[in-house]
Automatic annotation (TrEMBL):
CDD domains named among the record's database cross-references: Bbox2_TRIM16-like (cd19769)
Coiled-coil ranges per UniProt: none
Record protein name field: E3 ubiquitin-protein ligase TRIM47
Domain RING-type span(s) in chain numbering: 11-51
Organism of derivation: Dissostichus eleginoides
Amino acid sequence: MALTLEEQFKCCICLEIYTDPASIPCGHNFCLDCIEDFWDTKDKPDCPLCKETFSTRPQLRINRGYAEIIQFLHRPQKEDEDAAMTPESTKQSPNPLSEAGEIPCDICQEDKWPSVKSCNTCQVSYCDVHLAPHLRDPVLQRHRLKDPTLFSSSHLCRIHKQPLTKFCTKDQAPVCEKCTENEHKHHQTVCMEQEQKRGQGEDT
């Protein structure tokens, strides 16, 4: 079963949706307080997920892209509805997905509006309203957006139908959480976001 959007934005330390999500040098994200408290118990700071160690304690910064998405997750449903009620949208039918083949927005809670773009980095599809942060935030503007009809199949594991959140360095292929427990159990993996950042660096 595919991970829900909330599950994709959960801290692996407290198992709750990120509070002040902070990125560390290896590319993984944690609640700011969680990773600070975790490092307080360690002689040498390392990543709780990939175990990469750092010679000095990294200076943490809030991941503004994740923070904006989490803000939408916590926003009351009524605000989402009010934001979407433009003069044209009020004339649409109660079910916004009016055409076959349209990909629903992952952020919308009840009435699912069609996605206009999907983000390879966030692994999320967005409607017009929820895409707005990617268009105005400098961090999110660096994310790679694509057509949602292409993304809907390419971002899921063909075997387990789960999001491709990891990258297997041995097989040089994206994998899901189930893959790391089975076919790629003893292979070294990194998070997809880290691999995408590395790839973007090679392209420049």
